Amino acid sequence: MSQLVRIGDCDVGPGCPVFFVAEIGINHNGSLDLAKQLIDGALAAGCDAVKFQKRTPELCVPKAQWHIERDTPWGRLTYIDYRRKIELGVHEYEEIDRYCRGRGILWFASCWDEPSVDFMEQFEPPCYKAASASLTDHALIRKMKRTGRPLMLSTGMSTIEEIDAAVDAVGVSDLLVAHSTSLYPCPPELLNLRMIGTLVERFPTCPIGYSGHEVGLAPSCAAVAMGARFVERHITLDRAMWGTDQAASVEIGGLVRLLTNIRDIERSMGDGVKHVYPLEHAARTKLRRVRTDLIEMNGASHPHEINGVA
Ligand SMILES: C=C(OP(=O)(O)O)C(=O)O
């Protein structure tokens, strides 16, 4: 049975509400104002946390790509300048920290390099996230884990051997593992949601979750029915907005529906034991056919015996 992992004021694991992370990622396009509107949307939908991506562009962008030019909302920029442009700095994160704490929503980040972990520590985040791309970077994932904070490990683009090695590298205590396929957006036939069950069996003490990049809501709902203890989805104000992750994101209206569906599914799962609920008795009495012909044939003394009601 999986351990409960405490993230801020939420327990994540069996018997707890699904922990829902609204992944803002880089969908703020470098704008604090946009980031705040996305936080407001996550709050309105009832998400437990918002998440950002923190990078040191000079460490994360391979040198060979630095000077490749692209069109951006800020004009034609080299890739490294574009990455610098969309990276939020200390003053923006101070404001995000103040904004989230004031409104009672958790926030944290996936750190893509070691200095980003040092940077995030000043905000005392409730946990860290390792993106699928970082799963084989053991120095980085160990650094996040050494902070003593829970770690969410995403497993897209990884072999099962690489996942085992990453889990060995950080240990299972306070570790959460997310199934994911790293395609943005991901077609349904490549989502492989049955991996959730595989991960539950392989890492029985870790809460297993789902980091989804599909178009639509159904697979994320199914992930919950299949045992995901936490779910992460990218969010956006408008899927047509400029940016690489916008198309695979959920707009705020969809996010509201998704959270409503997830909470309904959680309440619907039950215990797997067959009950005849007291509230069903009226329907049972009214709708079950009373076999008077069999009463006569069997010599039963009371129609209820045929009807099966004790
Ligand atoms: C890319 C990320 O996550 P995932 O691999 O789950 O999509 C991230 O959290 O930065």
Automatic annotation (TrEMBL):
SUPFAM superfamilies: Aldolase
Gene3D superfamilies cross-referenced by the UniProt entry: Aldolase class I
Record domain PseI/NeuA/B-like: where: 38-274
Protein's name according to its UniProt entry: N-acetylneuraminate synthase family protein
Regions that span the bilayer: none
Pfam families: NeuB (PF03102)
Organism annotation: Pendulispora rubella
